[in-house]
């Protein structure tokens, strides 16, 4: 792809821009003045120099003012991932407003809710020209909030990002300029960003990583490159695009980053940093990569990134990589359920403080008060802390270890279990490329672990092998009852694993599990025994015992009960080798017939009489 001309190293070009500037749009203005001909943003068939970016953003800002947009207003930004996204965001900020970043691919109902909730009267959206967004007045079509409640901060808002709520209703997070500027300055310093860098823009517009991808580079005079959609759907194509476009710094959602690390990389790779974020990174980078893998943790309510760490191949394979230490301007506290600091090394909830903390949730004062609390651990007046709800602990080297969501911590048979720890153990198996572990079993009253796995190659180890692997590193109560192989783990628009989309047992209205019809009295008897011990009203004959929540202890109980009923010793392996009622009944029948062949006629008649099957 052709590129706009990048100028040479003009005097002062390599100095850090905007040392005394307090707004990111003003940093971009400095970059424009430093080298207006330099490439700013490029996508397939569309490019903008810094001069063109500034000109088009100024046009957007003027149109917004003519429509009555004032300082402190919210303007919806619904552009696709394109140069127009940078133009629209910059124009909104130059008009003195804050932009509400919405993904135009969201369902119409969700977009309508967000537009109404934020009270936006104007939207900057995609047009036929990928470099020139369209400014549209919404009039009175949506919303009734002329001046939405932006939270309790004196610092004006820079942008709003909506996140999913536990109630299913999205909530808008209001991020002020000070937090955004802190993120930009830390990023530029941490990764040595200069005007010569070429960075990728891959995150969904509705995902806060797009903020992280956009501003540190435009504020440094670097160039942004947007990959075609088909590249983002193909792993090797993604790698080849990064190499061909000579990208030097790139973000990738965690699930993608893990797979990119596995690929061979050509010698001409100029990528310096691969930045992973958005989900729990469970594997360390292999040796020989030509770039540094950086693991990042953060929440939308604390301006995208709170901790960061450059990983090395020497990271211990016994646990997932750490999430690092706090970035500049961020304060972290690990606390107990009384919000008091825990002893170093003990798990606790992570609280985030500092300039990064958002103003609060848009139009949600009660939720804001619940999650954004007074900083009782610091000495800065009126400072606040955000309760992340994430469970972490400090390692001896000072890096934090992510243990999972506090509300994802499950209790099974009296034991508290972190699903992430089980997933990390499974990823140590050579045939497991990626996995997710969740707890199911709400219908039966007992929660059970289910592991969803994607194979490294064609081989898919059976449940017995996987349990034996985990048993070397985890106690019995942490072993999943079921292992489900998938072609890929389902992900949402932000690249995170979509746990709601993971397949599971299908329940009928009667509470019994779906399955084929019973074909013999033996299958009926085996099914009744298994269902009783699982605590289920009934099961289908083809359903997997372990997928229903069975585990080794229950398997032993099933075998003992069946052996007692039929008078033939059934080996425990029968459940693992044939975990469905139909397979188990067939194995029992085989054992009974083998026993009959070695018996006298009277003994055989007695055995058949005890066996719950038709002669």
Structure summarized in a few sentences:
This protein is α/β, with parallel strands linked by helices and 615 residues long. It has 17 helices and 26 strands.
Task: Identify the notable features of this structure and list them briefly.
615 residues; alpha/beta; GMP Synthetase, Chain A, domain 3; Non-ribosomal Peptide Synthetase Peptidyl Carrier Protein, Chain A; seven-stranded mixed β-sheet; five-stranded mixed β-sheet; 17 helices; 30% helix; disordered C terminus
Task: Give your account of this protein's structure.
- The model is unreliable at 1-16, 140-146, 505-516 and 611-615 (pLDDT under 50).
- Strand 20 and strand 21 form a beta hairpin.
- Helix 13 (521-534) runs antiparallel to helix 14 (552-566) and helix 16 runs antiparallel to helix 17.
- 30% of the residues lie in helices and 21% in strands.
- The strands form 6 sheets. Strands 6-5-3-4-7-8-18 form a 7-stranded mixed sheet, with helices on both faces. Strands 11-12-13-14-15 form a 5-stranded mixed sheet, with helices on one face.
- It contains 17 helices and 26 strands.
- The protein is of the alpha/beta class and 615 residues long.
- The longest helix is centred in the first third of the chain and has 17 residues, at 50-66.
- Among the domains are: 409-501, 2-Layer Sandwich (GMP Synthetase, Chain A, domain 3); 521-610, ACP-like (Non-ribosomal Peptide Synthetase Peptidyl Carrier Protein, Chain A, Orthogonal Bundle), CATH 1.10.1200.10.
């Amino acid at each position: 792809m052709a590129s706009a001309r990048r100028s040479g190293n003009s005097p002062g070009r390599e100095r850090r821009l905007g040392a005394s500037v307090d707004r990111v749009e003003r940093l971009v203005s400095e970059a424009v003045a430093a080298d207006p001909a330099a490439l700013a943003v490029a996508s397939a068939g569309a490019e903008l120099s810094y001069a063109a970016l500034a000109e088009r953003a100024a046009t957007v800002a003027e149109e917004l003012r003519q429509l009555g947009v004032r300082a402190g207003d919210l303007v919806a930004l619904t552009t696709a991932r394109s140069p127009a996204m940078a133009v629209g965001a910059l124009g909104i900020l130059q008009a003195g407003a804050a932009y509400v970043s919405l993904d135009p691919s969201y369902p119409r109902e969700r977009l309508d809710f967000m537009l109404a909730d934020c009270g936006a009267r104007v939207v900057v959206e995609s047009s036929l020209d990928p470099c020139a967004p369209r400014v549209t007045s919404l009039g009175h079509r949506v919303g009734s909030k002329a001046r939405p409640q932006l939270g309790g901060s004196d610092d004006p808002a820079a942008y709003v990002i909506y996140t999913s709520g536990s109630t299913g209703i999205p909530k808008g997070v209001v991020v002020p300029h000070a937090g955004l500027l802190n993120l930009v300055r830390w990023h530029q310093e941490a990764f040595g960003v200069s005007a010569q860098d070429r960075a990728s823009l891959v995150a969904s517009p509705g995902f806060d990583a797009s903020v992280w991808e956009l501003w540190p580079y435009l504020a440094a005079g670097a160039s942004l490159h947007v990959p075609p959609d088909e590249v983002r759907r193909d792993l090797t194509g993604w790698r080849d695009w990064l190499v061909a476009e000579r990208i030097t710094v790139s973000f990738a959602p965690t699930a993608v980053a893990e797979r990119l690390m596995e690929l061979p990389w050509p010698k001409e790779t100029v990528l310096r940093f691969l930045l992973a974020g958005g989900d729990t990174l469970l594997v360390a980078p292999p040796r020989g990569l030509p770039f540094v893998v950086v693991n990042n943790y953060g929440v939308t309510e604390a301006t995208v990134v709170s901790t960061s760490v450059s990983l090395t191949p020497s990271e211990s394979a016994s646990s997932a990589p750490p999430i690092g230490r706090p970035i500049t301007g961020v304060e972290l506290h690990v606390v107990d359920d009384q919000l008091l600091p825990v002893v170093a090394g003990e798990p606790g909830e992570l609280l985030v403080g500092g300039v990064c903390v958002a103003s609060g949730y848009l139009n949600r004062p009660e939720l804001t008060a619940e999650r954004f609390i007074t900083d009782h651990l610091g000495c800065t007046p009126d400072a606040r802390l955000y309760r992340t709800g994430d469970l972490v602990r400090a390692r001896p080297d000072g890096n934090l270890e992510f243990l999972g969501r506090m509300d994802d911590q499950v209790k099974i048979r009296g034991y508290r279990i972190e699903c992430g720890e089980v997933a990390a153990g499974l990823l140590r198996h050579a045939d497991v490329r990626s996995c997710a572990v969740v707890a199911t079993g709400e219908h039966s009253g007992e929660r059970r672990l289910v592991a969803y796995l994607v194979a490294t190659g064609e081989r898919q180890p059976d449940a017995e092998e996987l349990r034996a692997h985990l048993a070397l590193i985890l106690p019995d109560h942490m072993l999943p009852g079921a292992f489900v192989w998938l072609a890929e783990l389902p992900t949402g628009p932000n690249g995170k694993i979509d746990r709601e989309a993971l397949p599971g047992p299908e329940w009928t209205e009667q509470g019994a599990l779906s399955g084929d019809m019973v074909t013999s009295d033996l299958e009926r008897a085996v099914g009744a025994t298994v269902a009783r011990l699982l605590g289920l009203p009934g099961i289908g004959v083809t359903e997997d015992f372990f997928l229903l929540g069975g585990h080794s202890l229950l398997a032993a109980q099933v075998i003992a009960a069946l052996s007692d009923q039929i008078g033939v010793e059934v080996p425990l392996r029968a459940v693992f080798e044939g975990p469905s009622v139909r397979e188990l009944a067939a194995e029992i029948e085989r054992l009974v017939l083998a026993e009959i062949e070695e018996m006298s006629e009277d003994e055989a008649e007695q055995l058949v009489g005890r066996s719950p099957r038709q002669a």
